Each structure stands twice: as structure tokens, then as C-alpha cells.
């Protein structure tokens, strides 16, 4: 796909004055007045401290905030780096994106950032969330230096998180991405990434900007594209990512649908890549690892277990369309358990996820309904994980996640057989 220039004429005028930049930091935002001032100050401090000799640019790509986000960005003092303000509404027609490129969502904001990086021939770029409370100037160093000094193309974040935070990543996204593509990227949907100007330009050539990637699948799409297309990838340890954590038993069906839809679509796109990959290999991790305090995550076990049991009662006829009888029977038996007796084995979970991946690929039913039907199974798996790790340390939990990943890897021949047959 040929690259199109989607930028407003006023932005193009600013770019023409700047001409070229070494570093570009993108901050997509939507109603983040409470936190975005801190993020911009931290980014600026990182640029001044670690890259004083580099030409630097901060780009805020706003999705039509109704609060004071853009005003705060305008009035937040920065020192040496220059600041471009972009504003676009969550409607198809607005100042920055042409009507057919204007799907509301984080991906559309990223596309604007990629385009500016391409126009200015940026050497190294990073994007950071605008709702961060834990970002420090060191994040900027850690996201950019592997690109500028070590010739990496993509830097994924490596965070420390509470053992019950990020359960979708821990139980599905990380082990599945690792099992498919053979790279151990611990936070493939972390939200804060570094990438080379070369990779930003490559992203622009992809014909995804009118799809759900432009709405909410951008993080996993960036990570998977970089890995599957042979770019040099690494990770940087950023400490804690403090954000508004949610009870993993709350209604996460929408997020599950969004993220898994992207992961499953990518599996289809890159099947020619992952078919031949066996096992996995570590990726380099930059930065000094240290222990940090983490905010607690409240968990409602009863709600998750009850949701699982209700799903077994209501969705058995749906799952029967694509789940093998032995797996379906094993899932039904789990519903007899309560409390400490409720246990969802790793192998059963990995096979269940693989069956959903294959059913999605083979269009066994409406893809949105298919993924939504996975919600009670995910909640049951999460409840089992919480029960098993209630007295576990952070290191114990990581070991358990490692064992789950190995189960995905060992069962990959099962996935290949089901995919082909």
C-alpha cells in the first residue's frame, strides 16, 4: 500500500519549519487532563537529561477531548524540545485525518504520529500513554537508547505488575504470542513502545487504517508486525506501570473481544511465519531491574466462578459447534468445583484457546460472538489462577506463567493439526 499524507495543512506548515528531527515522542490522548501535564514534563525532562544534543519533538495527538487536556498541553512548560499540538475529533471528518482514514481510536492517533515521524525523517521514536502516573524521565532513555545506540527497531516495555493485574496478557496474549512467533515479549500490549523511524515508515505502508486496528488493536499489531516481519526487537525494564487497575472479574468482555480479535486476525495474516517456529527464545532486556511497590487489585472470586458456571449452562450449545467433545466435557466438569476445588489445568486452557483461534480462522460462527463467548471461560481460568496463587510471591507467579507458556509451546503441534485439518 502506498503511503498517504493524512496531515492537516497547519501541521504540515509546522513540519516544514522544523524540517527534520532525530527523536519524536508521541502522546495520544483523550480526556486525560488529570495526568497529561505530568507525562509531558517527564518526557521533556528525559529528553533534556539524556538526549541534550538531539533534535527532539513532542507530538500530542488528541482524540477530541472534552475536558482540559489540550489546554493543559498548550500551557505545560517545556524547555528545549519543541511541541506540536494535534487535535482530531472521534468522528470521520475532522482537522487531522481525512474522512476515510478517521476511525476514532488509538490506532488513528498513532498513524498521525507515524506520519509526522516519516515526514521529519525521525531516527528514533517512542509513544507513551497519557494517563501514566508512574512515568519517569528514565523511561525516555530506556525506550530510545536501544534504537539510537544498539540498532534495535522495536522496544517493548517490561513492567512489574500486581499478580492479578494484566490477566488477559498473562493467560492469553503473552503465551499465545510467544508460542506462535517464538519471541518472549512479556508485555506485547503494554502501551508504551520505542521504535525506529524505519519501522514507523513501514507501519504506514500497511492497509489496516480502516480496520479495528485503528480503533483498539494497535499495540498488539505493532508488536506482532515487528516480530513477524523480522525487525530487531528487545525490551526495556520500566519498573511499575501505575494506572487505574480493574478487578479481573469485572466486565472485561469488550476488551477481550477487541484484543483477541486483533490477535486472532494477526495469526491468520502471519500463518506462513509461525507454522515453522518451534519453542521460543528470550529477547534482550535493557535497564536495571528493581523491586517496586504495586497498587493492590481487588478480586471478586465468587463472581468469576459464578460467571463460568452460568456460561457452561448457557453456552454449551454454542461451544459444541467447534470444541471437541473431550474438551467440552472437561470444561463442564470444572463447573462442579467450588473454592479451593476449582482448578482449570494449564493444558486444558491452552487447548481451549487454540480451539478458539482455529474456530475464528475457519469462521465457525460470527467472529464477534465467538470471542465474546470466551468471556466466561477466561473468567474461570482467572479464578483458578487467583486460587492457586493466593499465597504466592511475585516470583512464584512469574514461574507459573512461565509454565503456562511452555504448555502453549509444547501443544503447538496440536494447534497446527487443528488449523490444517
Architecture overview:
The protein has helices spanning 9-18, 36-50, 69-75, 106-119, 137-150, 167-181, 197-204, 218-228, 253-269, 271-274, 301-319, 325-334, 346-361, 367-372, 375-388, 394-410, 412-420; strands spanning 23-29, 56-62, 82-87, 124-127, 154-160, 183-184, 193-196, 233-240, 281-282, 285-286. Helix 2 (36-50) packs across helix 5 and helix 11 (301-319) runs antiparallel to helix 15. The chain is globular, with a radius of gyration of 22 Å. Helix content is 49%, strand content 12%. The strands form two sheets. Strands 3-2-1-4-7-5-8-10 form an eight-stranded mixed beta sheet. It has 17 helices and ten strands. The chain has two domains: 9-286, Spore Coat Polysaccharide Biosynthesis Protein SpsA, Chain A (Alpha-Beta Complex); 301-420, no CATH class. By secondary structure, it is an alpha/beta fold.
Feature tags:
421 residues, alpha/beta, Spore Coat Polysaccharide Biosynthesis Protein SpsA, Chain A, 2 domains, eight-stranded mixed beta sheet, two-stranded parallel ribbon, 17 helices, 49% helix, globular
Amino acid at each position: 500500500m502506498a503511503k498517504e499524507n493524512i496531515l492537516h495543512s497547519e501541521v504540515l506548515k509546522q513540519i516544514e519549519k522544523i524540517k527534520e528531527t532525530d527523536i519524536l515522542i508521541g502522546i495520544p490522548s483523550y480526556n486525560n487532563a488529570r495526568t497529561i501535564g505530568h507525562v509531558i514534563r517527564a518526557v521533556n525532562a528525559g529528553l533534556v537529561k539524556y538526549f541534550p544534543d538531539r533534535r527532539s519533538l513532542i507530538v500530542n495527538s488528541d482524540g477530541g477531548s472534552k475536558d482540559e487536556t489540550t489546554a493543559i498541553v498548550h500551557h505545560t512548560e517545556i524547555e528545549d524540545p519543541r511541541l506540536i499540538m494535534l487535535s482530531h475529533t472521534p468522528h470521520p471528518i475532522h482537522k487531522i485525518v481525512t474522512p476515510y482514514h478517521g476511525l476514532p481510536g488509538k490506532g488513528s492517533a498513532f498513524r498521525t504520529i507515524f506520519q509526522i515521524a516519516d515526514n521529519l525523517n525521525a531516527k528514533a521514536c517512542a509513544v507513551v500513554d497519557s494517563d501514566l502516573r508512574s512515568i519517569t524521565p528514565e523511561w525516555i532513555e530506556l525506550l530510545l537508547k536501544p534504537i539510537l545506540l544498539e540498532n534495535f527497531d522495536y522496544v517493548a516495555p517490561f513492567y512489574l505488575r500486581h499478580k492479578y493485574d494484566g490477566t488477559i496478557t498473562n493467560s492469553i496474549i503473552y503465551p499465545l504470542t510467544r508460542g506462535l512467533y517464538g519471541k518472549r515479549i512479556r508485555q506485547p500490549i503494554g502501551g508504551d513502545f520505542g521504535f525506529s523511524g524505519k519501522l514507523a515508515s513501514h507501519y504506514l505502508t500497511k492497509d489496516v487504517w480502516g480496520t479495528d486496528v485503528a480503533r483498539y488493536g494497535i499495540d498488539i499489531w505493532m508488536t506482532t508486525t515487528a516480530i513477524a516481519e523480522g525487525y530487531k526487537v528487545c525490551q526495556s525494564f520500566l519498573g511499575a506501570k501505575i494506572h487505574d487497575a480493574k478487578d479481573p472479574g469485572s466486565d472485561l468482555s469488550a476488551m477481550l473481544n477487541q484484543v483477541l480479535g486483533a490477535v486472532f486476525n494477526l495469526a491468520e495474516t502471519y500463518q506462513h511465519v509461525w507454522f515453522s517456529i518451534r519453542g521460543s527464545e528470550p529477547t534482550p532486556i535493557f535497564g536495571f531491574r528493581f523491586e517496586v511497590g504495586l497498587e493492590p487489585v481487588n478480586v471478586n472470586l465468587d463472581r468469576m466462578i459464578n460467571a463460568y458456571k452460568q456460561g457452561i449452562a448457557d453456552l454449551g450449545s454454542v461451544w459444541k459447534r467447534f470444541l471437541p467433545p473431550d474438551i467440552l466435557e472437561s470444561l463442564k466438569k470444572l463447573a462442579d468445583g467450588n473454592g479451593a476445588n476449582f482448578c482449570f489445568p494449564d493444558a486444558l486452557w491452552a487447548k481451549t484457546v487454540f480451539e478458539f483461534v482455529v474456530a475464528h480462522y475457519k469462521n465457525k460462527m460470527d467472529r464477534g460472538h465467538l470471542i465474546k463467548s470466551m468471556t466466561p471461560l477466561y473468567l474461570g481460568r482467572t479464578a483458578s489462577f487467583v486460587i492457586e496463587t493466593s499465597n504466592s510471591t511475585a516470583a512464584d507467579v512469574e514461574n507459573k506463567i512461565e509454565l503456562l507458556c511452555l504448555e502453549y509451546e509444547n501443544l503447538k503441534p496440536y494447534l497446527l493439526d487443528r488449523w490444517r485439518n
